[in-house]
């Protein structure tokens, strides 16, 4: 398990979205120690809720621009957002029924892998669309 380290390869060229991505990295990294010491179930649930809330806020920003600019891959990209939300619901259930330390490590691995892939691969696909409509 590793933390997320920001670098310029994650930039999509839209300050609002780049700042949200950085904030997501910060939230995940700041909770890393808590996740490693997963004995406190309530704290873990709070962390998961904070991640869910901020991810939903971020996704709504992207999806607002998808609609505004009639992004051609809106359905595909929104489906990825929904899959992430589904995974977070499953982790919430797992925290209630399984070994919390193992679930916490599994969750951190998932978060790191998902966000890195999503930003470097999927979010890069809308970069041209957004910047061509004047977003900076």
Structure in words:
The chain has 136 residues and is an all-alpha fold. It has one domain (8-132): Hemerythrin-like (Four Helix Bundle (Hemerythrin (Met), subunit A), Up-down Bundle). The protein contains six helices and no strands. The protein has helices at residues 15-30, 32-36, 41-69, 74-97, 100-122, 124-132. Helix 1 runs antiparallel to helix 3 and helix 3 packs antiparallel against helix 4. It is elongated, with a radius of gyration of 16 Å. The N and C termini lie far apart (33 Å).
What's the structural blueprint in terms of helices and strands?
Layout (H helix, E strand, L loop, with lengths): L14 H16 L1 H5 L4 H29 L4 H24 L2 H23 L1 H9 L4
Can you tell me the residue ranges where pLDDT is under 50 for at least 5 consecutive residues?
A: none
- The average pLDDT is 89
Distance between the termini: 33 Å
Helix count, DSSP H or I runs of 4 or more residues: 6
**String of helices and strands:** HHHHHH
Rg measurement, Å: 16 Å
CATH architecture: Up-down Bundle
